[in-house]
Amino acid sequence: MKCFRSLLMALALTGVLCASAGAYTGTFPVEADGQSTGVQACLMVPLRAVAEPLGFTVTWDDGSVLVDNGTLHTRVVIGQDRYTLTTSIDGLVGMSAPFSLGAPPYVANGVTYVPVALFDALLGDGAVTVTDSGTVSIQAPSSNSTSLANPFTEYDTLAQAEEAAGFSLQMPDRVPNWMDSMRFRVADDTMIEVLIQGGDQELCIRKAPGDSDISGDFTVYEWTQTVDADGITLELRGNGDYARVAIWTRDGYTFSITTNADLTPEAMTAMAESVA
User: Fold this and answer.
1) Exposure check for the chain: N or C terminus, fewer CB within 10 A?
2) Is 17 in a helix, a strand, or coil?
3) Rounded to an integer, what is the distance from CA 203 to the centroid of its chain?
4) Nearest one of 166, 211, 165, 213 to 185, comparing CA atoms
């Protein structure tokens, strides 16, 4: 594994030397003795050393790393080439669909390395560039810019959202009695989201292909517990007597329920059992 990492870094640095100046496209073509190898090299950079000067905090949390600047967040999972972005910018609140950057994060000598393209995703296309001298430059956007486009498309009905996503979502048997509105959204044609709102209370139901955590909730809760229910295994997270997050998989899809309402673990479990 150590040799592979060294080779990856060597290929990446070769790619820098071979790349022309301009916008960074995610990977670099690799040449050997002047001939194209057909290989694309992914440049890996130390996460904390790059992220903190750009205004991000980097926090380890149970095998993953939270990168956060207050409005943009991503959770990096070591060994998984699967990334998501979450924004709380006014008017753009939501989470992107999972995407690949060509290489998973890894840890070497206590340092976490990520593809440099992660900063293009966090800061906006064009944030990462390569100068004529081969230097990789990462520029933070101006304070009045918004880096992450709204990934969601709104629909009038659940049926319309299902058609756009290409799969169905079975809603819970019962909706909260405080509900006064329901919104249907699809993120990047790959995730259905239903927002149930009433006053200052909100409940969010999501479904997408795969098995990743799509909740977009990076809060560190007081407790986490696993519950087996109706053929599924739920991961519940919460504070005190109430569950705030439920995550589970079923039949090739991943699901989540998040809420700020006071749902007991039993009530959250019952709701999750009827979502498919």
Assistant:
1) N
2) helix
3) 19
4) 165
The pLDDT of residue 147 is 42
Beta-carbon contacts of 239 under 8 Å, excluding residues fewer than 6 positions away, are 221, 222, 223
Whether the Cβ atoms of residue 192 and residue 165 lie closer than 8 Å to each other: yes
CA angle at 158 for the pair 163 and 254, rounded to the nearest 5°: 75
Assign 152 to helix, strand or coil: strand
Tokens of 98: 């999972």
Residue-level pLDDT at 88: 61
**pLDDT at 250 (0 to 100):** 93
Structure tokens at 108: 């070497």
Q: What is the pLDDT, as a whole number, of residue 263?
A: 92
Those residues with Cβ within 8 angstroms of residue 44's Cβ, 6 or more apart along the chain or in another chain = 8, 9, 12, 103, 106, 113, 114, 115, 116
Task: Please give the order of strands across the beta sheet that includes 57-61.
Answer: 57-61, 64-68, 72-77, 86-87, 94-95
Nearest Cα to 239, choosing from 226, 256, 225? 225
Q: Provide the residue type at 93 as one letter.
A: V
Place of tokens 């995407």: 99
Over the chain (276 residues), the average pLDDT of each successive run of 10 is: 34 33 61 82 87 86 79 84 72 62 85 89 80 78 47 88 95 83 86 87 91 77 90 92 94 92 93 93
- Locate 125 and state its tokens: 């296309």
Please say whether the beta carbons of 40 and 102 come within 8 A: yes
CA angle at residue 217 from 214 to 220, to 5 degrees? 135
- Interatomic CA distance for residues 193 and 158, integer angstroms: 9
Predicted confidence at residue 62, as pLDDT, reads: 65
